Amino acid sequence: MAVVVSFLVGLMVGCDDGESTPSGSNSPPSGQTGQTVQGTVTNNVISVPVSIEGAAALPFVVDTGSPLTRLDPARHAGVVAGVDQVTTLDVGGVHLMNVTVVVASLCGVMMCQGPEPAGLLGADTLVNTPFTLDYRSGRVTFGAASPPAGAGAPVTVTFDLEGGGQVIISNQVTAVPATRIAVTTEIEGRSVPMVLDTGSSTVVLAPELFDAIVADGRTQTNVKVFTVAGRQEVPAIRLQSASLPGAAQSDVEAMRAPLPLTLLEREVGHPVQGLLGGSYLHNYLTTIDYPARTITLRPY
């Protein structure tokens, strides 16, 4: 079983309590609406073709779990390891300029197995305009999007935008905007503080929460992943229920987090017991509107 779970919470080492600095130049302008890009869906994660400095487009995961855009140096010629800036970044008809990026291997900050993307399209490029993820077609629309035929009635959930601040990346102090989508999710009757992560192929649960759930003796499977600690096998289960208000799903895959969530908790300033990922989100046409602080879910 291939698993891709964004885990860029480690990026926030050195986070202080200062104000974050928005990186508006890294985001699609609010007036640029209705730009649809055809991507691909793999393991409940959507990748879109991204061109850096006019080079041939390569697949990047659309990843709200990564505060900054990340490039794999093995896939991009001429980039310098650490924090860098690219002059142009193009996603279909969306043209961004002077984008701050982190140049480093993706494995180690992601839990990954199988073919890897060439980069992560980070949340700093997404915060200024709504975008819609169509898990059925693999399309991503930046700006206003018309729902496809057959999509159900919308359910809109508000979220708190959290995190950000000054961080140390490759010995460089870098300002990171607030990008964390904090939601309260009901997991089998428990109210669980989570962060929505479109770069995670599955729901990820903090070890103590996972262990409490499996105390009923339910069946567990093992999933092989690669993390900064190397190759690991982690247990996974099927949740009986997972829901945001008005949007409930049953039989949702979840795995035990092999990496601590403490850095993410430090960044947002409160407990975080999991990541709400693709095993839940793929059931919906999902619109994330950072400016309005809303998530709109239309069931397929």
Structure in a nutshell:
With 300 residues, the protein is mostly beta strands. It has helices at residues 207-213, 262-268, 278-281; strands at residues 4-6, 35-38, 40-42, 45-52, 58-63, 69-71, 82-91, 94-103, 110-112, 119-122, 131-134, 139-142, 155-158, 160-162, 165-169, 172-176, 180-187, 190-196, 203-205, 221-227, 230-239, 242-244, 247-249, 252-256, 274-276, 284-289, 294-299. The longest helix has 7 residues, at 207-213.
What would you say this structure looks like, in words?
The chain has 300 residues and is mostly beta strands. The chain has helices at residues 207-213, 262-268, 278-281, and strands spanning 4-6, 35-38, 40-42, 45-52, 58-63, 69-71, 82-91, 94-103, 110-112, 119-122, 131-134, 139-142, 155-158, 160-162, 165-169, 172-176, 180-187, 190-196, 203-205, 221-227, 230-239, 242-244, 247-249, 252-256, 274-276, 284-289, 294-299. The longest helix has 7 residues, at 207-213.
What is the terminal separation in angstroms?
24 Å
Q: How large is the share of residues in beta strands? A: over 45%
The percentage helix is: under 10%
Using the 3D structure, state the CATH architecture of the largest domain: Beta Barrel
Please identify the structural class as seen in this structure.
Answer: mainly beta
Largest sheet: 10 strands, mixed
The Rg value, from CA coordinates, equals 18 Å
Helix-strand pattern, N to C? Answer: EEEEEEEEEEEEEEEEEEEHEEEEEHEHEE
CATH class category label of the largest domain: Mainly Beta
CATH superfamily of the largest domain: Acid Proteases
**Poorly predicted spans:** 7-25
Please report the total strand number as a whole number: 27
**What name does the CATH topology of the largest domain carry?**
Cathepsin D, subunit A, domain 1
